[in-house]
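name: query_chain
kind: protein
chains: 1
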Amino acid sequence: MDRRSFVSIAALGATGLAFGIRAKMARSDDASSVHYEVEHTDAEWRKLLTPEQYSVLRQSGTEYAFSSPLDEEKRPGTYACAGCALDLFSSKTKFDSGTGWPSFYAPLSHAILTTRDDSLGMDRTEVHCRRCGGHLGHVFDDGPPPTGLRYCMNGVALTFKPS
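structure:
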């Protein structure tokens, strides 16, 4: 591949990335257009959350893989939303996916909502807290039995309550 072809392909990729981000922000089913039990202004969220939590929960950011201590958490307990304290996952459904993020094969009943996420040129399912709408991560269909699902969560979006 010559330099001109490489630059052309890179420019097309960057354009596609920008379009994907813009399309996600304009989607009508975006979590920001829904009303939740727990709602705060942007300024209030910034005061309640750490900068890392705000980036993930309110701006759909992603923490670095292998950066969360919750990925290595092995004790029995419950994982809750760092934004509103709603219980989301049981440690009984946690497994080591090897991805560097806390992973679960099932959420607790009535704990999450999902939306389609077609940003970054990928078709994924985004996972949100049912009570505050915070972005938690994504769910994939490559998990273990019994569900075959992998809820790949940002550890910074969660708190752990040992039982």
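note: The mean pLDDT is 85.
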